[in-house]
């Protein structure tokens, strides 16, 4: 689970509810026609902009934002270094059995390609093409939430205009102007809240997740090509560590030290 996303969404909603309730009733901000205009309008506009199958896949995309799916890059580097040691000791064909036991389809495909003796340039082309299509699919999911983040405030403004028009039609009743104005502004509030607390942050989280996964796959490509080239496992490890942030590099070093210390004991 990605607790940052869950805490962010629920704490954001809770803070707004507490802030509103501390200076009045929360029910003053509940107006069903305004919710219908903003949510219904946003959904309708998104349906027009995308194919139905893309919209139906939103729940699957949401799961990526709320679930921490990306693998630990330290584990991937350890797997690649182990593969390099096996290949150097027993040859590339020895990797075949290990490849069939892998749960990562991208790493499995790359390993089987090098086991089959595929030309290194072709291996790179196949894996980079798959990576490019993966990136396109991720961008499609992000763009749905970016579109919803753009449409929600716009439909909030439309709801406000509808409320103002209805209010101006009843100017003969001055006492109704204040409450009417308040109701009209509620749709703008709903639109801004949904855009800035839900849709735009989720699009941002999906982008972060996508960047993490793409970086991991780039590490895999470089590692597998280095294994195919017969490079020394220690050189491969140092090369792959260059992809990582200093924090993760230090964690990897600490893992090695702990392992060496454990072996000495």
TrEMBL record:
GO biological process terms held by the UniProt record: bacterial-type flagellum-dependent swarming motility; chemotaxis
- Sequence similarity: Belongs to the MotA family.
Pfam families linked to this entry: MotA_ExbB
- Which UniProt keywords are given for this protein, alphabetically ordered? Cell membrane, Membrane, Transmembrane, Transmembrane helix, Transport
**Protein name as annotated:** Chemotaxis protein PomA
Lineage of producing organism: Bacteria, Bacillati, Bacillota, Clostridia, Koleobacterales
Q: What is its main location?
A: membrane
Where do the TM regions start and end? 31-50, 144-165, 177-200
Q: Where in the cell is it found?
A: Cell membrane
State whether keyword Transmembrane helix applies. Answer: yes
Gene behind this chain? pomA
Identify the residues that the record assigns to the MotA/TolQ/ExbB proton channel domain, covering every copy.
101-216
């Amino acid at each position: 689970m990605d607790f940052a996303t869950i805490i962010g969404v629920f704490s954001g909603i809770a803070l707004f509810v507490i802030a509103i309730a501390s200076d009045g009733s929360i029910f003053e901000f509940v107006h069903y026609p305004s919710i219908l205009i903003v949510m219904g309008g946003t959904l309708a506009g998104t349906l027009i902009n995308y194919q139905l199958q893309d919209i139906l896949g939103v729940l699957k995309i949401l799961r990526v934002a709320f679930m921490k799916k990306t693998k630990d890059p330290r584990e991937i580097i350890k797997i690649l270094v182990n593969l390099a040691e096996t290949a150097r000791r027993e040859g590339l064909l020895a990797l075949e059995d290990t490849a069939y036991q892998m749960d990562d389809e991208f790493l499995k495909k790359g390993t089987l390609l090098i086991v089959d003796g595929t030309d290194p340039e072709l291996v790179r082309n196949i894996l980079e093409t798959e990576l490019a299509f993966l990136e396109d699919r991720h961008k499609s999911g992000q763009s749905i939430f970016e579109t919803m983040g753009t449409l929600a405030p716009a439909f909030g403004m439309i709801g406000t205009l509808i409320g103002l028009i209805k209010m101006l039609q009843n100017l003969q009743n001055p006492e109704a102007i204040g409450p009417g104005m308040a109701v009209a502004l509620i749709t703008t509030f709903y639109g801004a809240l949904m855009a800035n607390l839900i849709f735009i942050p989720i699009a941002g989280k999906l982008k972060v997740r996508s960047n993490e996964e793409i970086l991991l796959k780039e590490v895999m490509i470089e590692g597998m090509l280095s294994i195919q080239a017969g490079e020394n496992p220690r050189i491969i490890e140092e090369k792959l560590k260059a992809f990582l942030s200093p924090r993760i590099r230090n964690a990897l070093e600490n893992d090695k030290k702990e392992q060496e210390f454990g072996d000495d004991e």
